[in-house]
């Protein structure tokens, strides 16, 4: 009897040790998987996370009848001057998120934007999307700083707003912006005109006019591949919004 008890005890102990080993192995596998996933792509955090922390701006709640028109990817030697003429005609101020390479190519246009009271903001140097593993905070910061140098060289002023190309955002983008002294600015989701895809002048106009609210940040482009529809759309948008009582101000304002 004593021997049988001993054998049963040994068997139970073996089962316990086997289960323990399996648990350790499973935990190790899960940990390795978690690290692999973390290494594969940054953790995805939504708008609520960054907006409530004040790290990214999509729009500005206000009772004032104001709206911020923004233009990405320029300057362009044809479209940007045409847009500037329309803005001047309607007493509108806007924010231009410029690409560093194009600032170096068309410095006089950026200088004109500043002289006419518009805001110059940072949109990276090469316009690469920042949604992959290769875009570390250091690399993003380098893109920001190269563009800043181009802007300062032309205008003598340091910008303080940054918009990542394509609207991609994560901790790396926010971290790089903070270390370089920038606030990340997106656009109102109901005011993405998608003018870069030339969807038709009517669609651009309707997108803005049907959704216009106080404190909106509207996304346009003053540089697109091919023939722009933005200029013609603005000819209709600006007078109608002004008639409704909207004032056109910069994002910082």
Notes on the structure:
- The structure is a single chain.
- By secondary structure, the chain is α/β, with parallel strands linked by helices.
- About 50% of the residues lie in helices and about 10% in strands.
- Strand 2 (about 65-70), helix 3 (about 80-90) and strand 3 form a beta-alpha-beta unit.
- Helix 3 runs parallel beside helix 9 and helix 8 runs parallel beside helix 9.
- The chain is globular, with a radius of gyration of 26 Å.
Helices and strands, with pairings:
Layout lengths: L1 H39 L6 H6 L3 E2 L8 E7 L6 H11 L4 E5 L1 H6 L1 H9 L3 E4 L14 H19 L5 E2 L8 H9 L3 E3 L15 H11 L4 E6 L8 H14 L3 E2 L5
Parallel strand pairs: 1-6, 2-3, 2-7, 2-8, 3-4, 5-6
Mean model confidence by pLDDT: 88
Reading the helices and strands in chain order gives: HHEEHEHHEHEHEHEHE
Please report the number of helical segments.
9
Shape: globular
Structural class: alpha/beta
Q: How far do the termini sit from each other?
A: 90 Å
Provide the descriptors you would attach to this structure in a database record.
single chain; 253 residues; alpha/beta; 5-stranded parallel sheet; 3-stranded parallel sheet; 49% helix; globular; disordered N terminus
């Amino acid at each position: 009897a004593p021997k049988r008890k001993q054998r049963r005890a040994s068997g139970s102990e073996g089962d316990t040790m086997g289960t323990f080993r399996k648990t350790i192995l499973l935990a190790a596998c899960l940990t390795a998987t978690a690290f692999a996933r973390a290494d594969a792509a940054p953790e995805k955090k939504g708008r609520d996370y960054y907006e409530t922390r004040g790290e990214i701006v999509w729009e500005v709640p206000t009772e004032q009848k104001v709206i911020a028109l923004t233009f990405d990817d320029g300057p362009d030697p044809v479209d940007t001057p045409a847009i500037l003429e329309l803005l001047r005609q309607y007493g509108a101020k806007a924010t231009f998120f410029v690409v560093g390479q194009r600032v170096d190519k068309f410095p006089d246009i950026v200088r004109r934007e500043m002289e006419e009271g518009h805001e110059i903001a940072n949109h990276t140097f090469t316009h690469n999307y920042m949604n992959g593993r290769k875009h570390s905070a250091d690399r993003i910061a380098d893109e920001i700083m190269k563009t800043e140098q181009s802007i300062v060289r032309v205008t003598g002023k340091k910008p303080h707003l940054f918009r990542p190309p394509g609207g991609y955002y994560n901790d790396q983008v926010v971290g790089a912006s903070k270390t370089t002294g920038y606030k990340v600015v997106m656009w109102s989701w109901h005011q993405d005109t998608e003018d870069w895809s030339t969807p038709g002048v009517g669609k651009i106009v309707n997108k803005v006019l049907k959704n216009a609210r106080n404190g909106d940040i509207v996304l346009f482009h003053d540089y697109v591949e091919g023939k722009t529809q933005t200029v013609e759309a603005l000819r209709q948008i600006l007078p109608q919004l002004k008639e409704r009582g909207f004032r056109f101000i910069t994002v910082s304002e």
